[in-house]
Amino acid sequence: MPPARVFLRTAAMCSALLLTATACGGSDDGGGGGGGTGGGDGEAPRIAAVFSGTTTDADYTFLGLEALEAAEAEYGAETTFSESVAVPDAQRVLREYVADGYTVIWTHGSQFYDATVAVAEEAPDVVFIAEQDTEPEDVPDNVWVLDRNFHLAFYPLGVLAAATTQSQQIAYLGGATLPFSYSEVHAVEQALADVGSSATLTPVWTGDLNDPTRGQQFTSQLVAGGADVVLGSLNLGMVGAFEAVKAEPAGSVRITAKYTDKSDLAPDHYLTSVLYDFSVMLDEILGQVQDGETGGYLGMSFEQGISLQPPAGVDQAVVDQVNEVIDGLTSGEIEVERDVTPVE
């Protein structure tokens, strides 16, 4: 088993017994690498997940843990996961899970996509779930692509920001210059254009999704430059961003978050959060795996996996406008371009 903080869970062991990596490897009685999915013959799946962060982040990684726990309850699955896995280590970790007989392996983060595809080609009898922000071509038959569709989520945030800003200066706070982040920026730009807003959008990247200090520094600079709405796209780094806006008078600067409810971090400045539910996505995929579908594509949407908290501290007319936009996205009346062109 991978040595980096691995935890084993089994549905029958409701006490959530934590084991060391060595003990996990020695206690498994499923057969090695090509064990199948465990769905067609009635056996419970054995699911391994690879996380880039820690499950205590109350953010993206925590949502992955919630999805695993839901799979335990729904499918009687035995699950294990590795925290804080660096991209250069991903292939090694994945191969060790294959060798240990896990039948479904999920990499929670698009940074692991290439490693997932590479190992999937080596292990055709194992089902892999890889996250991506496109619908890629040439995907192995044993890979499910989970498309997070971040650009869809940021379009209504752009509409909300346009209706909220007083200074006509909106900021986007990202962590890394990756395609998904570019798509979020361009979605906000499209939203501003579609509603005829004259507000300017200033995108910045801290260089680290999980560094609160950098999140605070960059947010302070944005606010000092006149931005009164900050659209946050960080993980743990959002803690610092909220600290920065709390230094401002109540309501003078509004901030949004991503993945989970973060309203308690700065109640007087909180605007909303785009919420993600990976439990419903994992459930959908596992159900299809049990039906014999070892690979495919599943995109998140406002119908499945994405929702927006009701905006706080704005007029009802603004809430209604945002809800109408989400209805338009759901019906297909509004189409958001997935533009991953690098932002200069």
| Helix/strand structural class | alpha/beta
* DSSP strand tally: 13
**Run of helices and strands:** EHEHEHEHEEHEHEHEHEEHEEH
Mean pLDDT: 90
Number of distinct helices: 10
Report the major sheet.
Answer: 7 strands, mixed
Compute the CA-based radius of gyration.
21 Å
> What proportion of the residues form beta strands (DSSP E)?
15-25%
What would you call the quaternary organization? single chain
| Low-confidence runs of at least 5 consecutive residues | 1-40
Distance between the termini: 42 Å
The percent of residues in helical segments reads: 25-40%
Shape: globular
Order of the strands making up the biggest sheet:
1-3-2-4-5-6-12
Question: Would you kindly provide a brief summary of this structure?
Answer:
With 344 residues, the protein is of the alpha/beta class. The protein starts with 5 loop residues before the first strand and ends in a 13-residue tail after the last helix.
